[in-house]
Amino acid sequence: MTEEVQTRPLPPTGAPAAAAAGPTPMDRVDRLLEGLWHFLTSMRVAMLLMLAIAALGVLGTLIIQAPPGILGDVEAKASWLDEIRPKYGNWTGFLDTLQLFQIFNSLLFRVLVAALTISLIACSIHRIPGIWRTTTKPRVDVGPAFFGHAPQHEAIVVRHTPAETQAIVENVLRGRRYRTLSSDDGAIHIYADRNRWAPWAGLIAHMSVVVILLGAIAGTLWGYRDSQFTIAEGATLPVAGEPGLTIKLIDFTDKYDTKTGAPIDYASQVVLYKDGQQVDSHTIRVNDPLHYGDTTFYQAFFGAAAMMTVKDAAGNTLVSEGVPLAWRTTADNRPIGSFSIPGSDYVGWVIGTLGNGDTTVKPGQMKVELYKAADGTPVASQVMDQGVATTLGDYTVTFERESQFTGLNIARDPGVMLVWLGSFLLFGGFVIRFTIHHKRVWGRIVPRPSGGAVLGMATLATRDVSQATDFENLVTDIRAALQAPAQS
Amino acid sequence: MEKLSGYAFIAAMFSTGLATIFYVAYAVSGLRAARMQTAGVPMTTTVTGFTSGPRTAAIGRYATMLGWLAVFALLASLVFRTIATGHGPFANMYEFSAAFAFGILLAYMWFERRYHQRILALIALPVAFAMMFYATTIPADIEPLVPALQNNLLLTVHVAVAIVAYGSFAIAFAASVLYLAQLFIAWVGNRPEPGGWGLPRLDVLDDIGYRAVIVGFPFLTLTIILGAIWANTAWGTYWSWDPKETASLVTWFIYGSYLHARVMRGWRGKRAAMLLVLGFAATLFTYFGNLFFGGLHSYSGLG
Ligand code: HEM
Questions:
Q1: Beta pairing partners, A130
Q2: Closest CA to B124 of B112, B136, B138
Q3: Which residue of A has its CA nearest to B289?
């Protein structure tokens, strides 16, 4: 591929210059399009785009980035901005206006990535015909001047006839696994190459960046993700993205190193049901997710839960489940979780303790608040001890015991295979591009009036600064073969 | 085993320091030889530009031996530690710094064999030494792996590949510094032609920089891909713009720009060399990033 854009191109075949005529509107459109194409296929533009994206990336590592989803929600955004305000002071609003807290979703970033992608596609299309020609229709006759100007060239005077010389040269080339082509118009033209498919590797590597981006886009468009799925021990919950699928958490365990207290294991033992039938069971760990169909369940976080039972006045059990205390109250940062009472208009909130020294909700207690679901009117509120049935509004509520919940990340990403395919092609493409080179040599044999011939050899590959090049070795071999006593 | 690893590490650091001294002596001796040659005393100048007398060559050989000694000592240290911990050197900054230093030393020795440019050591070895010194200042305790890091094979390959990339980039950095230094000296001295003083020729340095990058770039690509695969199995997202991920992508783009710059008119030579310096700055930023930005990688060290 190097050869395609080298500043030393093969001598032109003589494309006719466009006839000069007065500019018409059509010409202007043409020129505009041509200019645009030139812009998109310019390596300078591509390079500057890359550096600009890199610069944004640096900002993205230095400036705190908002967690995904937060900036779309006015309230969450305001409270998040308040949280970081101590760090950025009066700049906070300004940085927010510039979208610097969400650089990788910002307009500028999207425009740059889109421009680079279009440029990549344009570039690749632009390069295809040239690469196709070098692979399949190489020029055998490159004209005599080439043999004086090519980066590496040699002229050898030989005593053999042109035909004998050709046979010897081609023989050496084939011995070095070159394929040879030739033509004869008084002078004999030889073209030989190796690894002629190699230039496609660079092109494939470039295109694979587009494949990866397509995978990422497919993931956002058609994927499903719930990174906040919480489920308490013993509970069974529907999986939103998969109709009919429910998941039950049997048990969650967290283990710690006895010496340092560092975590060593988080494990959620779960069972999956499809339409009530058990279809899978697995212990999900970090690095060991559960795959079911296209959906994958990952261990993400965990925390305390409260086992609650709620009975109505008649003594019927309405609720008996673990409530994950997965959230924090804004006022005093207490763990909090909610449950609903089936067949009623109420939701309950369970608020946990802050630990030793907390006098409002002591360790071993839970505070339960009841609200009207429709308008959030508080109905009743009570701090209760573990195992003690407490009257709350029309219900009897019991905080049975503490347990744990697990936080799962549930994801279905139809783009991920494209991402891996693109990654594979990207890596493979660059490795091939840098290790296997399309080697090309041209030869030209002209008979001398006094007998014998002159053999010119040339290549586009540049001289190496520290060792003999393939071309130099090749010429050495050819010289040796030409000097060997003729076998008869 | 852990003790053995510690001793080997000290040996490696000592050899690196001593080797650096010998390389400096070699450079000074070469400089003197170059001056004598200018004064008419016959000396040998290699095709690649370095001038040396007989003494210079002997010092150079010792320097090289010490360099290899450092490589093997550090390799031994890493192997012993791997045996002691049961996993590759990825669990904390100590392990990764030692591995980074190994990558630089190995890449340097490899390029020395190929190009015989010992002057590169003046930049590369101090960088490796600084990495090892840094490693001595941070806790080296062996602790059980946190759950996210319990993906032994993938993460071991991930760091091994990263080390090759980083080592290569350090060599590209050394070459570009020597390149730019010659331009700078020529500019300050108002001389029309850079070069001389027994320093490697500019085209040789340019070539070394390129060779280093075409090793480093695919390896960096693979590092990022393996990181994405790991993130996908551990967290369920292959990319989350975690600062460390972002920084490595920035590095990737800078070296990608370099590979373009090198074939573009107006960007070859000086500007391409500047991109290599920038690229290595980004490499170090990626590496030390843990220390000042949070993120998924922050628990794998001090952060
Ligand atoms: C994500 C963006 C890009 C990356 C990472 C990238 C990377 C690379 C790399 C590593 C090379 C050297 C290997 C090779 O020749 O194949 C290269 C070469 C090349 N790139 Fe890109 N590139 C990108 C975008 C582009 C774009 C948008 C263009 C079009 C203007 C382009 C045009 C070229 C050309 C023509 C070469 C061949 C240069 C030569 O070796 O003679 N690249 N690119």
A1: none
A2: B112
A3: A61
Strand ranges inside B22-122, DSSP E: 44-45, 51-52
Cα separation, B102 vs A386, in Å, equals: 58
Chain A residues with CB under 8 Å of B145 CB are 264
- The answer to whether the beta carbons of residues A269 and A251 sit under 8 Å apart is yes
C-alpha A454 chain-centroid distance: 55
Least confident segment among A122-131, A249-258, B223-232 = A249-258
pLDDT of residue B194: 67
Rg for chain B, CA atoms, rounded: 20
Q: Taking the CB of residue A30, how many other CB atoms lie within 10 A of it?
A: 12
Residue owning tokens 């680079």? A116
A287/B151 Cβ within 8 A = yes
Q: Are A271 and A247 in contact (CB under 8 A)?
A: yes
Contact A414, A222 (CB under 8 A): yes
Interface test with B, best of A466, A469, A472 (most B CBs within 10 A): A466
* Most confidently modeled range among A80-89, B147-156, B208-217: B208-217
Q: Please provide the size of chain A in residues.
A: 488
- Distance in angstroms (rounded) separating the CA atoms of residues A319 and A316: 9
Taking only residues 129 to 188 of chain B, the set having a beta carbon closer than 8 angstroms to any beta carbon of chain A reads 143-148, 150-151
Q: Of the ranges A16-25, A299-308, A394-403, B269-278, which is most confident? A: B269-278
**Contact between A402 and A233 (Cβ < 8 Å):** no
Nearest to B241 by CA among B262, B224, B256: B224
